[in-house]
Amino acid sequence: MQATIICDKSSDNVLANFMNTTIHGHLSEIQTISWYDVHKDDIRPCIGCFNCWIKTPGKCIMNDITTIIYKDMINSDLFICTTPLLYGSYSVTIKRVLDHLIPILLPFFTMSHGEVHHKQRYAKRPKMIIVAYNESISDDEKQTFIALARANALNLNINDPEIYFCTNEKDAIETATKIKKYFAKDNTGGLSS
Amino acid sequence: MKKICFINGSPKTGESCSLYMIDYISNKLGNAYEEKMVINALQLFKNSNQENILKEILSCEAIVVVFPLYIDSLPSSLLEVLEALDICKKSLPTDVHNIPCLYGLVNCGFIEGHQNINALKILENYAKAVSFKWCGGIGLGGGEMIRSTKNQIPLQSKPALPIYHALRSLADGIKELKVINSDKAIVFANHRFPKWFFIFMANRTWVTWAKRNGIKKNRMFAKPYLD
Q1: What's the CA gap between B215 and A54, in Å, rounded?
Q2: Which chain B residues are closer than 8 Å to A151 by Cβ?
């Protein structure tokens, strides 16, 4: 199983460092993972030019790390995103990555689940796991993030994502263990011997 | 002196639906505010004076965040400004005399205004986190169409009336620093078009725009990164 993982390296609080270290510690032996530890300064914000739809179809005109992440993501079976939870949203860094993913879609609209959504550019779509963490997460923030992640999945025509929330080190270890088991279930040779 | 700040969350440098909406609301406010500021989120971090600008924003009675929906939520550049504002506020002594009223105005490319709901929820969570007074927001569908057809389909014409009512509700609330009507039938608005018509018009527009760049329709379906 081919997987792409993005982690936010911009946050340097205790939980963020523990989260990133734990995820790495649990999954580093898996050889089919493309890791991206992204820092905010690695990515320029999307400027909404739509050139990825009408000038260089399928490609963002900014050639940065998101170009490689995007290529790996569309060729993956699993996309994992770990993000600090900010007001019920992804962190600024992770949002910068996600904002650059619109060329994965076509500009053209279609009806899906009774609503207008974009058509898909690629037939293959990865399964999605999202880990949101913060030392304090309110119920409103949790519900907002669940609804947001589900809306993202709907727009990408992906089945509902698996969403994990972590507020402490115990949660981080449990979540990393669950994700590792996910790879262990895979019989396509994701784990090294 | 009563002050208001519009934070323009559109990363576009030229014309945008957000900027059009800011002009519209600003005009509707008349003389209700003595001072009106418009801050472009993407430009703020290029400004060496950003600390003072953030303090200026915090001194306003009303803050109106206007933006396009990006991946079902706020554009990253806007999120960054709001986080910076949060950090700035927490670094200052608590100003018990001024608790800014926060309003939101989101537009999305899809026809359904209700697809903006998560972005407004994020703003509501933000207001709680920074101790602003959340006064509500509106979500408009077909944002680009609202701006580009403003002369052909004026906001007070029959197909655009839901948008007009939502904007009026927002402007009335901001004028008096009141919480706006939260009725979903009003706050989420779009043109009264059949969805098939919206899809037909929008898809035709994309092809026209691509042609201007010398891109034929079949090339718009390119899959450049498939292994």
Answers
A1: 7
A2: 72, 115, 118
